[in-house]
Amino acid sequence: MRGVSRERRVTTKILAVSLSAALFGGAVAAFAQQPDQSQQNQQPSSGQGPQPQEQPGSEIYIPKKAPPPKPKEEKVQKINPNQVYTIRTQSNLVNVNVLVTDRSGDPITNLAKSNFRIYDNGVEQPITNFSTAAAPLTVTLLVEFSNKWWGYLYLALQDAYEFLNFMRPHDWVAVVSFGMKPHILQDFTHDPQAVRSALDSLRIPGFSETNLYDALAFTEDRMKNIQGRKAIIVICTGIDTFSKITYPQMLKIAKTSDTPIYPVSILQWVYMRNGVSDMTAALARNQLSFIARYSGGQAYFPAFTGAVPDIYRQIGDTLRHEYSLGFIPTHTAQSGKYHKLEVKLVDPAGNPLRIVNKKGKQVKYKIVTRQGYYAPGA
C-alpha cells in the first residue's frame, strides 16, 4: 500500500508540473501573437512608406551610431620671408609731364602733340598719349617745422596761404610737417579751410633737427600711386641734419618718382643774415636743385619775402598747364637700369621750334620735365 501511494504522489506531481508548463507556454504564445498597440496606432512619417513588421523571435540588431571623423590637423607652414614672392601687374607706359616756360617762368601754352619729341637713351620714341586738359591737382604741402630757423620759415608759411587761392573745388591738398620725422597734419581734402586749420596748428617747434630727405621720401611714397597731375611743394631751408636716407638715395628716389618736387627755400634769407656758412649754403642749394630737377620740378630761392606769393602763383600755373605725354619704350629688356629722357620742341619740318611773342620777337623758353626713369627689373 505504501509503495502504491508513493507512486501516486510522484505521478500527481509530474502531472501538475506538466499542466503548469502547458498553461504558462500557452499564455506566452498568446501574448506573443497579440499585436503591439503602440505600433498599431503609429502612423508613418511624411514621405515614408509603412515600416515592415518584425517577426516574433527574430533578433534585432541596432547599429551603434558611428562617431564623426576627426578633422585632419593642418600643418602650420612656416613662411620664409626670403621665399615670398609678390605678383605685380605693371604697364610699360612711361608718363612724362612737360612744362614749357619763358624766361620769367610763365608757362607757354597752345603747343601741339606734333611739336614734341621724346628720346629714351637717345632713341626717339613714338608718343602714344598726349593731353593738355586742366585736370584736378593733388598737392602735398610739406613744411619744415624747426626752431632753428622758424622765424624765417613762418614768413614763408604765411605766404603759403596764397596757394590756397589757386585751389579749385576738385583739387586735393594735404599738409605734412617735418622736423625729426614727418607728421600728417591734414590728409588729402577738398576743403581749403581744413588746410588753413592744419597750417595754423604750426606754432612753436620743439626740435632743431630738419630731416629733409626722410620727409621727402615719405611724401613721395604716399603719392606714388596717385594718378593725374600732382606735386610736392616744400617750404624749407634745404639743409638736412641727419636723415636715415642719404642724399644719393634721395636723388635716386627723385629720379624714379613721377611726382615733381617744388622746393620754396628760405636759404637765401638765412645766408644773407649769416645764419649759415658759405659752404653749407652752396651745398644745400645744389642738392635741393638737383632733387627738384630730377623729379621734374623746380627749386626756388627767393631773396626777399615779397617774391614768395609770385612763386606760388607760378607753381599753380605750372601744374595747370603741364603737357602730359606718354610712350611705350621700343626696347623690351627689363634691365632695371636708369634711362635718360630728353624732350625737344620742333616745328612741322622737324627743326628746333622757334617761339615768338605778339611783337614778333623770339622768346627763349625752358623745358622742365623729369630727367629719366628706371626700367622694370627682370
What does this structure look like?
It is a single chain. The chain is α+β, with helices and mostly antiparallel strands and 378 residues long. It folds into two domains: 97-132 and 335-378, no CATH class; 134-320, Rossmann fold (3-Layer(aba) Sandwich). The protein is 31% helix and 21% strand. The chain contains nine helices and 13 strands. Strands 7-6-5-8-9 form a five-stranded mixed beta sheet, sandwiched between helices. Mean pLDDT is 76; it is low at 1-5, 10-62 and 73-90.
Short characterization:
With 378 residues, the chain is α+β, with helices and mostly antiparallel strands.
Q: Please report the total strand number as a whole number.
A: 13
| Helix proportion | 25-40%
Low-confidence parts, pLDDT < 50 over ≥5 residues?
1-5, 10-62, 73-90
* CATH architecture field of the largest domain: 3-Layer(aba) Sandwich
The average pLDDT value, as a whole number, equals: 76
The coarse silhouette is globular
β content, as a range? Answer: 15-25%
Strand order of the largest sheet: 7-6-5-8-9
Along the chain, the helix and strand elements come as HHEEEEEHEEHHEHEHHHEEEE
CATH superfamily of the largest domain: von Willebrand factor, type A domain
Give the termini separation.
129 Å
The CATH topology name of the largest domain reads: Rossmann fold
Number of domains: 2
Look at the helices and sheets and give the structural class.
Answer: alpha+beta
> What is the count of DSSP helices, taking H or I runs of 4+ residues?
9
